[in-house]
Write a structure and sequence with these properties.
Order of helices and strands of chain A: HHHEHEHEHEHEEHHHEE
Number of strands of chain B: 5
Structural class of chain B: alpha+beta
CATH superfamily of chain B: Beta-grasp domain
Shape of chain B: globular
Helix content of chain B: 10-25%
Strand order of the largest sheet of chain B: 2-1-5-3-4
CATH class of chain B: Alpha Beta
Structural class of chain A: alpha/beta
Largest sheet of chain A: 8 strands, mixed
Radius of gyration of chain B: 12 Å
CATH superfamily of chain A: NAD(P)-binding Rossmann-like Domain
Distance between the termini of chain A: 38 Å
Shape of chain A: globular
Strand content of chain B: 15-25%
CATH topology of chain A: Rossmann fold
Number of helices of chain B: 3
Oligomer: heterodimer
Helix content of chain A: 25-40%
Strand order of the largest sheet of chain A: 3-2-1-4-5-6-7-8
CATH class of chain A: Alpha Beta
Distance between the termini of chain B: 37 Å
CATH topology of chain B: Ubiquitin-like (UB roll)
Strand content of chain A: 15-25%
CATH architecture of chain A: 3-Layer(aba) Sandwich
Largest interface: A-B, 45 and 21 residues
Number of domains of chain A: 1
Chain lengths: ~250, ~90
Amino acid sequence: MDNALLTRYSRHILLPELDYAGQLKLTKSRALIIGAGGLASPVAMYLASSGVGQIVLVDFDKVEVSNLQRQIMHGNADIGRAKVDSAKETLSGLNPETEIITINRRLAEGELREQVKLANIILETTDNFESRFLLNRICVEQRKPLISGSVIRFEGQLSTFRCDLTDSPCYQCLYTETEALEETCSQNGVLAPVVGIIGSLQATEALKVLAGIGTDLAGRLMLFNALNMEWRTLKLKKDPDCPICSAT
Amino acid sequence: MAKIIFTSNLERHCHCPTKIVVGNTVIEVLKNYFSEYPAIQSYVLDDQDKLRKNMLIAVNNEIISDRVTLLDPVKENDEVFVLQALSGG
């Protein structure tokens, strides 16, 4: 790292837990973010500003005016643009040192597997269970850490699934694959900062896992309720009968 | 007697206040609660009394693993927390 980068990342490097070595790990890392909406906004913005070397953004949506209340990496001028294009502009503006790779379509399973294989960490920010279960299955298969966040109304959930570690539960140890009715933010609403809070925590977990510092949320599900400002952390065990991770 | 708490997101569907309920297992606690608040039952259990796939239950903040019989023991002063999967992003 040259002097300009040392200055850019100095507040990280000052942290003894992170230090120069941790920052160097971040700059050599590749993060795959599935989705470029509400949760992805703080996730991508913090990973970019923190100096993660490569960020791959996957989304097939265009920016709509109803997104702007919470999807803070898009602005008024971006309405009608592909979200990944709008996001790339914002992220490159935050930190031109981070390479932003955009994929403006829904990935087939094989393509998603290839992207997971290339990444050091995967962040799930989509709004549907189908994507969450598929991504979990691929992360278990490829042994890659998965940071999962979800929100609705005033509530958020967050966990880190260390699919790269054999004794760590996966998303499907927590939830059984289901076609149950999904509750989406577009149908039920969501308080904008709740998305920011959970997304920021996803970014925090990602930076810790990439740098190899601290204790992550593996084996725990963190719940946030903004209406009464309460946090709750639930313990989660690996399911010995999990159809996805029990054989690994 | 155990305390049963439902995540506030479920309150939107029907009234399910926090209560102190009798029961020595998760299913007993749930059934005793549902006898007073029947409307919430179908959100939590399917028609065979199994936990719905999008629901979770934790006893003293530990997620239970038996989703079928719900026979995990519940002791005096335990807390049973009922929540649902979120998919919004």
